[in-house]
Design a protein that fits this description.
InterPro entries: Coronavir_polyprotein_1ab (IPR050534), P-loop_NTPase (IPR027417), RecD (IPR006344), RecD_N (IPR049550), RecD_N_sf (IPR041851), UvrD-like_helicase_C (IPR027785)
Protein name: RecBCD enzyme subunit RecD
EC number: 5.6.2.3
Helix content: 40-55%
GO biological process, one term: double-strand break repair via homologous recombination
Number of strands: 20
Bound molecules: adenosine-5'-triphosphate
Shape: globular
CATH architecture of the largest domain: 3-Layer(aba) Sandwich
CATH topology of the largest domain: Rossmann fold
Number of helices: 28
Radius of gyration: 26 Å
Strand order of the largest sheet: 7-6-8-9-5-10
Largest sheet: 6 strands, parallel
CATH class of the largest domain: Alpha Beta
Distance between the termini: 42 Å
Subunit structure: Heterotrimer of RecB, RecC and RecD. All subunits contribute to DNA-binding.
Number of domains: 3
CATH superfamily of the largest domain: P-loop containing nucleotide triphosphate hydrolases
Structural class: alpha/beta
């Protein structure tokens, strides 16, 4: 090799190592660049692209957009000015624009330009994007399956649908609204019948579960295949155990109400009982320890006719690809979720990509006519489009929140619109206007957060003192058996939660957990002796198939009633509780404070969100919105520096992905 080139490669790898040491690049990124360098001739710029691609993948992007690479990527990566300059200088001149990068990458033997002869190279160049092969394949799987499902026209008798919808839904919408608009819930049910894909999106309390319970009843009512309604195999799933339990509970309650209403016409209770429990996606697909593969896949598909997935915003690209591959061709897929919430921690933003245009509808003439016949509702002109795309015909956005009104709802809406002024106005209106519902602790000090975490605030209930008092007293003091006491403690722990935007520092998860533990110990509410102590809340950070706990599960450490002196961690999935010996749990962390990311799929009576002192790359509108919408009744925003709120609202999380384009192809 030309000695000049070899030196450049050495210098580039040295810079990548320096960035890793400085905490600006994950170790895997440098290692991946090094690995690609061993696969034949590799120019130094290719190594730069590989390291950045791997780094971005770790930050949730499924690909690297070449134009971004041609610009200075430092702001996106949170690098200092000199860091990118040093890497560039080491690698030699880098292409100045996307086209230049494309030409360079196209000539590399480690890169497969889509359309050329495929030698199974590890990198894929598709148009203006560079991928790790796995993510490219996943995007293609998702796009083709979604397109096929959306395009599958099922014959539906609109008059029969209308008859059922009129019985399943309450009489007219609330006429107090000046313009309530059409009943999007009914529209969602009708639209969902027409193809093998339905996406129902909406903010908290817009009735996604309410609607899907009615859709289920409708599917039962109209089932005409083998075995009729009784033969319909339905599966309920969600990304986390907690979300799955919540889905099952809400659907059961809704079906129970409907059964009451419909009487003998449809044996809903019997049908619901056959549905079985809701599962996590991992368990539905038959995840296997220590491998990425699942028991169910294209060669061994799931035995279902209808699959309902809740909290779909949390489903990452790889999981969605696995799910779609394992879904039999004839099955219907119904996705529920809030498109505006944070995307999954892992790469991809599938629901966001699917629903990028959901706000404005784009319903084609055929859909508008069908909806009118099947529901009696008129889709307003702004939501129509003569040549609306196929995908748009399968997506419905619910727009009216029934539960999430008041100041918390107004704040969430303002944040979602990116209107920092309106958000500040809602927050500043204060208790005179909002009562205890909403409080802004602007310019807060660490002592304020501690006081809030432990004692809560007036009108919004106590903080962690509440459940710890019950823990300390023990079951006897409450005249309860151990199980009843565990349930009571777990329920009380769900009343309040402290959410952080960041992990590190005084205002992050690590600093606050430590400060809260120290204070609780001083107050004798806990007795911290080593890692495990009675009352310790923990969050599982990795799936553990041996003990049956999964990433994101939250449990409480309490005495083992059968083995005095030993501790067990108790987890609740809806009404079901289970426990694991504390010492068997290896990948857990204390959870008085947790990240907003990890709180997805959960709600707490009082949620307090802590912003850091300074804005940073993760702090964006979606994160603030997700934090606010975790609050069921009370919300407190803690901001050591009030200006950070405006900066966060102004930022949008942008995830590089080719899915949107592939879906429309
Ligand atoms: N059309 C309706 N008529 C009467 N009540 C409704 C209607 N739609 C929803 N609700 C009620 O509003 C509340 C919120 O509905 P639901 O739980 O289905 O919303 P969601 O969108 O699933 O919320 P989340 O995102 O928080 O899970 C429930 O109590 C539900 O019964």
């Amino acid at each position: 090799m030309n000695p000049g080139l070899e030196e450049r490669i050495e210098a580039t790898l040295a810079q990548l190592d320096a960035l890793t040491e400085a905490g600006k690049l994950r170790r895997l990124a440098g290692a991946f660049a090094r690995f690609v360098g061993t696969l034949g001739h590799a120019p130094a710029p290719l190594l730069v692209a590989c390291a950045l691609l791997s780094e971005l993948e770790g930050r949730g992007h499924s690909c690297l957009v070449l134009a971004d690479l041609a610009r200075d990527p430092s702001p996106q990566l949170g690098w200092l000015d000199g860091e990118w300059a040093a890497l560039r200088a080491a690698a030699g001149p880098l292409p100045k624009n996307g086209a230049g990068w494309r030409a360079l990458l196209q000539a590399c033997e480690q890169v497969w330009p889509v359309g050329d002869l495929d030698f199974k190279q590890p990198l894929v160049l598709d148009g203006e994007r560079l991928y790790l092969r796995r993510y490219w394949r996943d995007e293609m799987t998702v796009a083709s399956s979604i397109r096929r499902r959306a395009g599958s026209a099922r014959a539906v008798d609109a008059d029969t649908v209308r008859g059922w919808l009129d019985r399943l839904f309450e009489a007219p919408l609330d006429t107090r609204d000046a313009d309530p608009g059409p009943d999007w819930q009914k529209i969602a049910c009708a639209v969902a019948l027409r193809s093998d894909l339905a996406v129902i999106t909406g903010g908290p309390g817009t009735g996604k579960t309410y609607t899907v319970a009615r859709l289920l009843a409708l599917l039962f009512a109209m089932a005409d295949g083998e075995g009729g309604a009784a033969g319909l195999r339905i599966a309920l799933a969600a990304p986390t155990g907690k979300a799955a339990a919540r889905l099952k509970q809400s659907i059961d309650t809704a079906l129970d109400e409907l059964a009451e209403k419909l009487g003998e016409t449809l044996p809903l209770r019997e049908l619901a009982a056959r549905m079985g429990a809701a599962r996590t996606l991992h368990s539905l697909l038959g995840a296997r320890p220590d491998t990425r593969s699942f028991a169910y896949h294209a060669g061994n598909p799931l035995d279902v006719d209808v699959l309902i997935v809740d909290e779909a915003s949390m489903v990452h690209l790889e999981m969605m690809a696995a799910l779609l591959a394992a879904l039999p061709d004839h099955a219907r897929l119904i996705l529920l979720g809030d498109k505006d919430q944070l995307a999954s921690v892992e790469a991809g933003a599938v629901l966001g990509d699917l629903c990028a245009e959901a706000e404005s509808g784009h319903y084609a003439e055929g859909t508008v006519d069908y909806v009118a016949r099947a529901t009696g509702e008129t889709i307003p002109a702004p939501y129509r489009e003569r040549d609306g795309g196929v995908l748009a015909q399968s997506i419905v956005m619910l727009r009216r929140s029934r539960r999430f009104g008041g100041p918390i709802g107004a704040l969430a809406l303002a944040v979602n619109r990116g209107d920092a002024e309106a958000a500040r106005a809602v927050l500043r209106a204060g208790p005179e206007e909002h009562g205890a519902r909403l409080l802004w602790l602007e310019g807060a000090r660490p002592a304020d957060v501690l006081a809030l975490a432990i004692d809560g605030r007036e009108g919004a209930g106590q903080g962690y003192r509440d459940y710890l008092t019950v823990v300390k007293a023990g079951p006897e003091a409450w005249d309860m058996d151990h199980q009843g006491w565990v349930r009571a403690v777990l329920r009380r722990f769900e009343q309040f939660r402290l959410l952080c935007a960041v992990r590190a520092g005084e205002w992050g998860v690590a600093g606050l957990n430590e400060a809260i533990e120290t204070r609780l110990d001083q107050l004798r509410l806990i007795r911290r002796r080593g890692e495990w102590y009675v009352g310790r809340p923990v969050m599982v950070t990795r799936n553990d198939y041996a003990t049956g706990v999964y990433n994101g599960d939250i449990g409480l450490t309490l005495p083992d009633p059968l083995r005095p002196g030993s501790l067990r961690v108790w987890f609740a999935d809806g009404d079901v509780i289970r426990s694991v010996l504390a010492t068997r749990l290896r990948n857990v962390e204390t959870a008085f404070a947790m990240t907003v990311h990890k709180s997805q799929g959960s709600e707490f009576t009082h949620t307090a969100m802590v912003l850091p002192r300074e804005a940073n790359a993760v702090l964006a509108r979606e994160l603030v919105y997700t934090g606010i919408t975790r609050a069921r009744e009370f919300f407190t925003l803690v901001a050591p520096n009030g200006a950070v709120l405006g900066q966060a609202i102004a930022e949008r999380t942008r995830r590089a992905s080719g899915l949107r384009e592939a879906l429309l192809a």
